Fold this sequence. Notes:
Blueprint: E1 34-37, H1 42-55, E2 63-66, H2 69-76, E3 87-90, H3 96-104, E4 110-125, H4 135-142, E5 171-173, H5 179-193, H6 197-205, H7 207-215, E6 223-225, H8 230-239, E7 244-248, H9 249-254, E8 259-261, H10 271-275, E9 282-290, H11 300-310, H12 327-339
Parallel strand pairs: 1-2, 1-3, 5-6, 5-7
Antiparallel strand pairs: 3-9, 4-7, 4-8, 4-9
Helix pairs in contact: 1-11, 4-5, 5-7, 6-7, 11-12
Amino acid sequence: MIRKLAFACLPALLLAGCQDPxxxxxxxSRSEIRIVGSSTVFPFAKKVSEEFVNxxxxxxxxxxxxTGTGGGxxxxxSGVGANTPDIVNASRRMKASEFERCTANGVDGIIxxxxxxxxxxxxxxQNGPKISLTVEEFYTALAANPFGKxxxxxxxxxxxxxxxxxxxxxxxxxxxxxxxxDALEEIIMxxxxxxxxxxxxxxxxxxxxxxxxxxSVRTDQGYTDTGENDNxxxxxxxxxxxxxGIFSYSYLADxxxxxxxxxxxxxxxxxxTIENGTYPGARTLYIYVKKKHVDxxxxxxxxxxxxxxxxxxxxxxxxxxLIAAPDRLRxxxxxxxxxxxxxxxxxLE
Length: 349
């Protein structure tokens, strides 16, 4: 018999006032886990959900929605109760401003769990001319205002470096709401931008101007926002062999028969280079959980444990592209799940 959930005056939930959920817009009964967020983390969460149900067929299948990290965090932070998500998948760390929004809406107990690592891969069709880029070259091609010297007018790769293939700059990538886009700007573009000493100095003296120069992506035909669907970028590369795509390493690994990684600073995206941190696009993947929903939403604590099991070395998530976290970090995350240790927003940026 499936256990029904009612958000009432349960000590584990500690909802303000313990009012009738129907009248407080906290939603009606729910007996399945609801998950939103990153398109990058989505395939991993989907696989965990399948294993979660396979382990106990009486469990309800979690409801997953791929909204992008930014959109998922917004939904997650909208409040507590059955009509709000229990988990948000994130391909970058939660921002301080998002944490503050959560707190303002009563989401005041957030558990941050590192599930492993991934890479922001640059890729091209196996049929295209091979290209290798430095972080400076990639930034110069992608930035709206390279090094603050005016709008980007480069239309072909030799305008960036005469040694590059004489093809049009045609980059497919994620939208501004995507955690992959945030990580792209903060991890790869910023490294390229900082090769200019004068701009690098702005990171201390004028942070807003620094971010405007280093994080703004061009909006002309050099860059095409393809939405939250990384599979669509893979498809576009197959029909545009001169183009470069930006997506999660896991999608590169899954489609190695049709696309290949573009080396950055001479390092190709691979499991080994992401794990050891030598690949410039390596990043951390997260899930965030509402403490007030744990032990109230059926199976939520068990789902978190299943995510950790799948992400261990040689676990089933590593077979579909997740880079496993070191044992020390994994043990720390398992401790957080057991103790329901919540995030202190002071360390967020």
